[in-house]
Amino acid sequence: MSPAVEGQRVADMDRRARARLIQPVFQDPFSSLNPLARVRDIVAMPLRAQGNIDRADVTRRVEEMLARVGLTTEMGARLPTELSGGQRQRVAIARALVLKPRIVVCDEPTSALDVSVQAQILNLLAELRRELGLTYVFISHNLAVVEHVASEVAVMYLGRIVERRPTQALFHAPEHPYTKALLASVLTPEPGLGVPDVGLGDVMPDPANIPPGCRFHPRCPVAEARCATQTPPLKARPGGGVECLLVP
Ligand code: SF4
To answer: What is the pLDDT of residues 59-79, one digit of tens each?
Structure first.
């Protein structure tokens, strides 16, 4: 079934309507911005693509958006190659928000940045979410970032959501064995502790060859024989659910 937003099926929308509703921020601001385009033209592109916004309005909205993400008007005349990584990601965020979308898909938006800049971008995203009433679909492997930004977390394994819960519940009482392994695999700064053994073994998942039954069973430390043949049903939880044969 096609997802719907506020009762409207996304698949039924034309491209321009979908762009007004959902925008992306990609992982790598070094490759997601056209290196030959000026910053102001990059941010203006979604407005121009709508085809019905006059030039003065485009200029005004681009300048407003640059200021909102912490960039100066002068930076609008630069090329992406003349900006730092953090500034480039601000350009990518401005481009995503200039149409005032409801939903922003943030695909690992800080993982290509220096650690010191990551916090600035996360704070900026949090500020903009509050100010503009945005919803983020935030994709990340960094659990500390997920815990910091998310109100609800969906854990995926081989393309399937295996546990979805409110953030506090998931981090304090994970139920799915994969979620537990993920949380246990976080490295600590304590020297000498090494890499934690979370019991997932050496079998690497192959998306082209999904295992039968529970797709996690070849790696699951608590798998039973039935896990290789039975597909786990969704067990409802407040605000979500979990897919594991062993949970009540
Ligand atoms: S269904 Fe079985 S293999 Fe899958 S997560 Fe639960 S215990 Fe592990």
So the answer is: 999 999 999 999 999 999 999
In the chain, CATH 3.40.50.300 covers 20-148
Q: What is this structure's pTM?
A: 0.87
Q: What is the whole-number distance in angstroms between the Cα of residue 219 and the centre of ligand 1?
A: 9
Fold that domain 20-148 belongs to in CATH: Rossmann fold (3.40.50)
Mode of pairing for the β-strands spanning 234-237 and 135-139: unpaired
216 C-beta closer than 6 A to ligand 1: yes
**Is the C-beta atom of 228 inside 6 A of ligand 1?**
no
